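Throughout our pipeline, every protein is held as a single compact record rather than as scattered files. Nothing more is needed to write down the fold, since each code stands for a local backbone conformation. The record that follows is passed on verbatim for readers who wish to inspect the format.
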Amino acid sequence: MTSPSKLKGTKQSANKNNSMMTVVGESNNSSRQLSSSSIRLLLILSAIILFGISSMIYTHSKLIKNDGDRMAAVADTSLQSFAPPTRKKFSLLDRRRQQKELQRWPTNNNASATVREKITTRELLQRAQQQQQSKQQSVISDERQTQKANGMHICTCLNTQQTQPSKLPSKPKKIRWLHIPKTGTSFISTLWSYTSSTTNRYIDLNVNSHSCSMFDNTSYSMYDFVLMKRYPWEMYGALNMIPNNTKLSVDIPLGLVGGTQHAALAHDLKNDESYINTPHYQRVKHSKMIRKWGSEISNNITIASFFRQPEDRILSAYYDGRHSNGFTPEIYKGLVDASYQRNPTTKQHSCTIDNSNKTYHNPLECFARYPGIAGCMTRMLSGETCADGILQENGIENLQMALDVILNHLDFVGLMEEWNESICQFHRLFGGKKKNDSSGTLYWDRPLQGEFSNVHKSTKQKTFTTKHLNGFEDHADRAVYEAVKYKFNQMVGTNKCHRYMTWDELRNDKEGIVERQGIKLDGDGNICKPKSCVELGKQCGEWSDGCGKTIICGMCNVGRTGLPSTWRVQCSEEGQCIDYCSPWKQKGYWFLSDDSPPAMKEVITVINKPTDQSYLTPVDAILICDKACNNGSSSSFQHFIDTGLCKCGTTPTILSKNFTFQDFSKAHDLTTMCGTNKVRNGAYLLENETQPICCPPGLTQKSALTKELKGKGWVRLFSMGSFNKEGEYFDHVRIECGAFQECEAVAREKKAEMAVFDLFNSMCYLARNVIDLKDWYTVTKDNQYRYAIDLRQG
């Protein structure tokens, strides 16, 4: 094995032979001949390049052979890719911030920290020109936004049967998604399908990205939460991942762990003395920027992440409400205020930042240059939040650690600019399954077509592009991005395999792709096109897709209509989501049949209920109550008041809306946006209005668990660091009005060791063989409305 000293010598020799630069020791005499501003520039340029070189040379990448020639090539690549900015662009940083950054550079960590670079003006100009050309070529062409509907995505390197390739990693038991803001929320489609789908049974990913609140008519775009609510882990993922009737250990396969939110990658704060002894760590250890739980890097967890061209990521963040995860409300307010500053005379955008004298003339540039915005990807790789709300630095301080993580600890890197290829590569690396024989062959399930879609596409009209940044460059994230591109190319190698084929190309296939991919043909030799849930007319349940597989349409969610949270929703035998009132259902008044009570048979005739509808709509029940409260002489209607099914008040506004059976049904379609659907905005009931009496109000959105529930052992689940217990989920029960008490009673009756109450879906998930996952990871699930209780004691 080549020693680090020889590698360093090889690198320096290569640089000398190529006449790129000469690395020399620090010289006080030569430094004095330069101006103070030049010294600052050279010091910072040296540190950037030094961090790239030292990380490349002194670490052993999983993807790079440990020989001198390859390491020298890596170092050369890093030096060329991590080209420093020109003096003109760098001078946009004010002098005070330059001085602060110089003070942060370590001066005693190792001898190489004192190395300085001597570089000519000509070479600086050449590098600046190369960067500018690279920037002009980096206009993002998001493959997901240009897809056609006349064919399908094919990953040609994934076949139904193939000799087991070499150098493929083992199938991961736990995947940690480092979700950097604005780098592809759509990746949750692949990750959730990875846990919830099998060869012949898969989830429908075509779900509208807007999550509906169960407490009011608000909604927000959160595709990951929508997917997890539609396909809960306990009912779909756990059944595929966790073995049945087996004594479990902390090594159980869980699929996706650690949450889908923008949690930074954790580092080993207990054992990594080289990190915890740095001045930078000492500055932030008392802040919330550093995660306090254990490290995925130190445990057997596969780490996957997508990355994006830095300035384009900032542009996307700007148009997403000036996304700055990590800023305090006060800092965020300052950011927004700066973006909206205008010159009082010209009325044009004009902002100054950080008490500097430099003025910027558009809100995008103000956002990008605001202290703490640059360096998001770099910080999240090194354990800190995307936006620096503590020190408000630009990420340079974190660069060395970030590069080490990329080359040595990330198991999968994807590029938004290579989205389709990245999805194929994820499946190639982690999706292979062994045949049930002794042949040693692997087969791959084809990625779902929804994995290639942009499920979180912005509809905002963009008036700014990266050219309006006026020369701003995110230096730290550019270095990270170049390292990621290098690793991505090494990961793909000669296995580039995405291909989009039209139906005609597939029908006339002469390459054997159709056969190798296991694509079904109909009796006429045409490609079988699986039907989606919407095409099947289904809103929930599991159904044949018409091509020999089962498509899962998932669970019905509350909040799709404007009805109060005291109402419930369930899936019918026909695959339709039905809103209902629990007390009415329990007494046999909601679902109509020959066995319905006599009073029910009479009133449905009076309200002209269609005979072909086998259950009430919310408007039917409200109309019955309205007539009962205003027509007490009818014994059938009076019966609904006497039995406590109706509450009298003012005339319900909803009756004037003329909502139909179809209106309520359409609200539950998978692709319907809750914020714009008709009943979501109009089917509301005020407290003083006449209405059916449904379940008692449960927890509100802002309320915490009561002391009584806490005393019984109920805790709220979060993505990280709380109730880290899992088990084998063997049953699930719909909870009507009993909430926590009913869930606990059912769990004890069925001898469960743990119960999880899903308030959003009114479901109680029961588990046995429960184990503690310690304090360093937990399975990913929608944790907004989940509560758990450990029943093994008491």
